[in-house]
Amino acid sequence: MAKKRSKKDSSKNHHPTKHKHHPVFRQKLSVGQKAADIIAKFGGSWTFIILFFGLLIVWMGINSWILLNKPFDPYPFILLNLVLSCLAAVQAPIILMTQNRQAERDRIDASYDHAINRKAERENQLLQKDMNKILRLLKEKKRK
Asked: SS3 for 31-43, per residue?
C-alpha cells in the first residue's frame, strides 16, 4: 500500500530518493539565514504583492481623498517614494542572500548526486563483470 506523502514531505528541497544524511538537509542555519529565507519567501509571494498594492492604495487614498485639507504626504507622495526606496534597498540584498544560499545548496546537491551516480556506476560495472563471467561460464558449460 502506498504511503500518503505529507505536506512536509512534498517541500521543494525534499527528494524522495535522497537520504536523510544528505549534506543539504544537515546544514545548520544561522538566525540571519533563516530570516533571509522567510523574508524572501514572503517577498516573492502573491500575499506580499496583494498586501503591498493594498497599502499603496490606502496610502494614496488617505492622502488624496480623506485628508484633502492637511495630508501628511501630499501628492506626488514624496514620503511614499522614500518608503518604497527603502523597502527596495533592504529587500534586494535579502533576496540576493537567499539566492546565494540556494546556489550553495544546489552546488552541494549536485556534488552529492555526482558522488552517488559515480558509486552507482561502479556498482553497475561490477554487476556487468559478474554477468559477463556468468554468461562465459554458461557458454563453456553448454559446449561441454
From this structure: HHHHHHHHHHHHH
Pairs from 101-108 (Cβ < 8 Å, separation ≥ 24): 101/33, 101/36, 101/37, 105/13, 105/24, 105/27, 108/23, 108/24
With cell 485639507, the residue in question is 69
Helical residues (DSSP H) of the chain, grouped into ranges: 31-43, 46-61, 78-143
Is the whole-model pTM more than 0.85? no
At 2 the three-state DSSP class reads coil
Q: Are 105 and 23 in contact (CB under 8 A)?
A: no
Q: What is the pLDDT of residues 17-33, one digit of tens each?
A: 455 566 656 678 788 88
Task: Pull the grid cell for residue 50.
Answer: 496583494
